[in-house]
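Tutorial handout. Part one gives the primary structure; part two gives the three-dimensional structure as tokens.
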Amino acid sequence: IYTKFKMSATISALVSYGTDSGSDSDGDTKVSPDKNDPDATAHLRPLVSVQKTSLASLNSAPEVAVKEDVETGSHLDPSLKEVTFNPTYETMFAPEFGPVNPFKTQQMSAPRNMLSGYAEPAHVNDFMFEQQRRTFSTFGYALDPSVDNSQLSSSSFIGAVEEAEKNKGLTVFEAGAKKTEKRKKVKGTDASDIDGFLGPWAKYVDEKDVAKPSEEEQKELDEITAKRQKKGKHEEEAPADEKTILHVKDAYDYQGRSYLHIPQDVGINLRTADIPDKCYLPKKQIHVWSGHTKGVSAIRLFPLSGHLLLSSSMDCKIKLWEVYNERRCLRTFIGHSKAVRDICYNNNGSQFLSAAYDRYLKLWDTETGQCISRFTNRKVPYCVKFNPDEDKQNLFVAGMSDKKIVQWDIRSGEVVQEYDRHLGAVNTITFVDENRRFVSTSDDKSLRVWEWDIPVDFKYIAEPSMHSMPAVTLSPNGKWLACQSMDNQILIFGAQNRFRLNKKKIFKGHMVAGYACQVDFSPDMSYVVSGDADGKLNIWDWKTTKLYHRIKAHDKVCISALWHPHETSKVITCGWDGQIKLWD
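Part two.
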């Protein structure tokens, strides 16, 4: 009782303490909590006995539908590739929950396990798979792996089903021909018979020791061999017959002058050695010489005057044309049986040489059209050049397909020297240094310099970066060699003593790979001209090496371009379209 009293005393003291402390803020109005708020002291009053509530009516843990009851098994994300526990069959094959993506197309929402669709796993060993694949690629049919193939029917094949039925479903490995029976060998396998033992060296029963043609076969063979011998002899004996056609009415004019006479009525002095002071770019086409039926391979202007033009062609003919006045075709020289590759005038233009694929070099008279002589060493001549010295006009050199440069004497018709150092067919020969030396280029991608009549090259120029140079031209001042290189550029080599490559002068911008397009200079050395594989005529400035001008000259390859030595802007081009054109 004492303790209870003491407790109630302390509580009431606490209550009064609470009211006092609040008095500062509340002013002097002392409000007893009992009067105001009965709840405030409810904990201090003893419990009022009310009717007791039974515990049974309040269920502290009501029955709730558990997630596990509603959903069977744990959920698997269908996109999962790996599972860290052992799911049951029900879990694995439970239907997917959740809303369907309304934006997916039918194709996208279809089940798939690879980009292109659903690949069913089919357990096929490597051999079976390869067999079916090969059968499909050969015959066009294969077994359908998704069908039970224990009983073959037309439905068990995919691809060319008719083929499969026709072949009775045979695969490539079964469809092969049955092996033929082994050839019988002569008996002799008894090793105890020392003399008669043949072992594995026994002959076949039906083996023939001597192969002999039957009578009919023998007849045929005899005919062929006879033909061959005849043909060979025929080829050796007879070069093609030479003939010539004069296309103008009179070979001589009223004064008895032939067409070799240099005209004096063309408004320009062709007899002088002087060159024009300044040259200009040619702009337009002013004439076309057409007469060749196939591509033109080379053109050469008459020495010094340039009033006649000689052209060789793949139609086996050589034609002579006027450059001035009516620009007629004067004469055709016929005498080669195959395409003509190169032509070369002598110093005064009275004669010229032609080299053709029929392996003959022929010397012609320019005026009469007669073939004076013919030379051959049974190799194809690729280029031919007279020695330009006045006292050596009876000698000429030819670059051959057998890597040699051969020197002939016209008077005797015999080979007097062979320069045999190149490792490929010889493409060009160019005389330099006052004709004491000549430069040759070849398919071996090198450039060799030779002293005349000394068969050892004294200079050999070959760099790993160099390409073949099948067209070479000496500049009018004799100082430079322009070489058409097969890497689509024109290289300039010095033509006096050192033969060094001039790295500052490289002319590019045209396409010539594979074609020996002839280069030329303007007479005053201000321009460089060349054809190209697209049939264009390209003109570069010599000083700056800029490509100044480009004219579409021919339909096919423009194989040669010549600048007339007396004209300021006349350029002659020829192409594989069979035309020769004059530009001014």
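Part three, for discussion. The longest helix spans residues 2-26. DSSP finds eight helices and 31 strands in the chain.
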